[in-house]
Amino acid sequence: MDRTKKKIKNGVIKVTAQKNPVFLYDGDIFGENFNPNNVADGFLCGFLVEHIMKHIFTSPLSALSSSKSQSICANNTKIHKITQVDGYYIAYAAVHRIFISTILKAWFNICSQDKFIDADSHFRFPDFYYRIVDFITNSTDADWVKELLGRYNKWVAIIMMILYY
Q1: How many CB atoms lie within 10 A of CB 153?
Q2: What is the pTM of this model?
């Protein structure tokens, strides 16, 4: 892994939106369960994506907790009347993870960005977003899509029950 990091830092390997970051995959360690023979296996089920989804759709506190949703104010599912998660929401969460890393990197480098950036070096956020959306919406594996969306829709269903019943 250290050799790969060095190659990225030296520009030998270019990190682009066409490559799936390991944090998108299921596993306690980034990329631990990556299957090069089946790239959809565990894709978009990484714990960081799950925490960001919880943060966005339920509350920041629920992202820190492995139990039920905790909130001190209205959450996005209620504010925006979200009843189901789709590929666009999952891609949105994945882009947030990359964007947060970019902002932190810029902040630690004392870089002054006075406007939204849509690229970090060779990595373009819009390309990454639409690539994930395309992967989900054009997947030929209907069972995989159903399982993926079901994984995230369970939170929305729980929130809807808490808020409206």
Answers
A1: 17
A2: 0.70
